[in-house]
Write a structure and sequence with these properties.
Blueprint: H1 3-9, E1 27-30, E2 33-36, E3 42-43, E4 46-47, H2 59-80, E5 86-97, H3 105-120, E6 127-133, E7 142-150
Helix pairs in contact: 2-3
C-alpha cells in the first residue's frame, strides 16, 4: 500500500499548501531530505482557534490544531515531491503558544506525532521537540515543522 492509499484508507485529505505569511517557502528539498517551514493550523486559509494553550485554548483543542498543522506540513512536502517517496519522518518540531505555567507541550504535540504514526507506521517514528513559547505568528496556538527523508 502506498502512503497516498493509506491517507485515503484513513479518510485523511491533505489540504492545499498554506500560503506563506512572510518571506519563505513552505518546503525545500535538499538531497534526500525535505525541510518544511513552520506550519500553522490553517483550515481554508484561516485559523479556527487562536490564543494561548492553558488559557483561551484547551490542551485538547491544541492537540487537534497540532494534527491540522502537521497535515499542512505534509501538504508542503507533497508540493515538492510525491508522498510515496517518503522513507521516514525524521524529526518533528512543535511550538506551543503557552500560557504562564502551562507545561503540557508534549501532550499537545502528540496530535502531530500520533497522526504521523497512523499514516506511516514504523516509518513515522521520529525524533521530536515540543517547545512552549510566549507568542506565535497570528496568535496561533501551535506551529509544527518536519524533516522528512525521501527516496532518490
Amino acid at each position: 500500500m502506498t502512503w497516498e492509499e493509506r491517507l485515503t484508507e484513513l479518510h485523511i485529505a491533505l489540504p492545499a499548501v498554506a500560503a506563506p505569511v512572510a518571506a519563505y517557502v513552505p518546503a525545500k528539498r535538499v538531497g534526500n531530505f525535505v525541510y518544511t517551514s513552520g506550519q500553522l493550523p490553517f483550515v481554508d486559509g484561516k485559523l479556527d482557534k487562536t490564543g494561548k494553550v492553558g488559557e483561551s485554548v484547551s490542551p485538547d483543542e491544541a492537540y487537534a490544531q497540532a494534527r491540522t498543522a502537521v497535515l499542512n506540513a505534509l501538504a508542503a512536502v507533497h508540493a515538492v515531491c510525491s508522498l510515496n517517496s517518503i522513507k521516514s519522518i525524521v524529526k518533528v518540531v512543535g511550538f506551543v503558544n503557552s500560557a504562564a505555567g502551562f507545561t503540557g507541550q508534549e501532550a499537545v504535540i502528540n496530535g502531530a506525532s500520533e497522526v504521523l504514526g497512523d499514516i506511516f507506521g514504523e516509518s513515522g517514528q521520529h525524533a521530536r521537540s515540543a517547545v512552549g513559547v510566549a507568542e506565535l505568528p497570528l496568535n496561533a496556538a501551535v506551529e509544527v515543522e518536519l524533516i522528512v527523508e525521501v527516496a532518490d
